[in-house]
Design a protein that fits this description.
Layout (H helix, E strand, L loop, with lengths): L1 H19 L3 E10 L6 E5 L4 E7 L3 E10 L4 H9 L5 E6 L4 E6 L7 E2 L2 E2 L2 E10 L4 E4 L4 E4 L5 E4 L1
Parallel strand pairs: 2-6, 2-10, 3-9
Antiparallel strand pairs: 1-4, 3-12, 4-9, 5-6, 7-8, 10-11
Length: 153
Amino acid sequence: MNRFRILSIIALFLCFIQAVHCQISQTISSAHAAASQINQLVLDLGEGNVEVRKTMGSRVMIETTVKAAVPNDRLLGFLVEQGRYELASNIDDTNGILRINNRKNNSVLMVKGQPCQETISYIIYIPAHIQFVKNQLGEKLYGGDNNPLTFKK
């Protein structure tokens, strides 16, 4: 009987630790117009994993997945509603460039006085007429072929 009690206490303790350090995840979708004269996409997304895929259509579709070690999903929902993960686009018609960047400069997320671990990843669906994807430094991340590309920043 005593062993059963000890095992029960250990199991409850492990469940408590798991609940405290759980990561909440949320996916946000956005669409950005990319007229046919646009042939280049420049990404300034800060830290995060990015995967580029070709798709049909004329819009750049972006799925942003945020994983954060926050105490509950309402906090992450609040951050999403406040625009922490919103993306902005800017079209340069003369050079055929669509630039996509974070709308806000996000500082370290603090929860109860402690920095919160936040992981952001992007899946970017680009139309066939976009031939190149570069980062903010001008490094080519994708160029013309139909193979999906994954890179870490």
